[in-house]
Amino acid sequence: MTPSKAQAVIIAERRSKAVQLRLAGVDYERIAQQLEYKSRQQAREDVHRAYVQATAEVRESVEELRNQDLERLARLQAAFWGAALQGDPKAGEMILKILARRAKLMGMDSALKVEITTIDQIDAEIQQLREKLALPPAPEMKAIEA
Asked: What is the pLDDT at residue 95?
């Protein structure tokens, strides 16, 4: 059941007070007592909901700002594009700066993490698991040559 606007305001105010108390170091038991929650768990869940909501709102705000900046960059690029294609070196430099900024905003320049696992590493992990499970060592296998 969706709370009424008045109930939503009351819930938001209590949640805000619970977060403030938690940030001040008050434990969930005392928060529950002080703000008349039914249980310690309910107080904890309410604080958690507030954190989740705040995090989502921050993400949405950041995404909105990112989209606005991408739109501005697109407009700037359009303004300099013709001159850059005609050979204007300053316009060309501006286009490159715009492209670099767009790539940074979109995370396109982030380093890629690549992990390579060798057969020896896999065999070592299998042996460790066999030892943990108290299994006998695996029989030796010969490599198949192509």
From this structure: 97
